[in-house]
Description:
By secondary structure, the chain is mostly helical. It is about 80% helix and about 0% strand.
Amino acid sequence: MLKSIIKSLKKNIKGILLMSITAVCLCVGQLLWKTMTQFDLNREILQFILGFMVCGGGGIAMVYAYRCGELSVIHPMNSMSYVFSSILAVEVLHEDMTPLKIVGIVLIILGVILIGGSDEV
């Protein structure tokens, strides 16, 4: 089973990496929008536009990701955005990381790994 998971991950690696980039772009773009009310008007406009550009770049990466692997493997990778959002929330917004959130993050990562290796099983 482990060999088939590794084989599936190797087969879909380009799509997985592109979808990971998508997830990061979406999180960063949304973080820019969330924090834009904390600065002056000129900086808010810049963050608003930059947020759209980053999210747009993520959307483009997503389109290419779907072309580079199995949909049933690539699409669930987008759930990694929850993991990246949690990390950004702790690091940038100084939110608390509770044990329950850590368990949730670990379960998401395990689910993505298992689904990422599922097209050969």
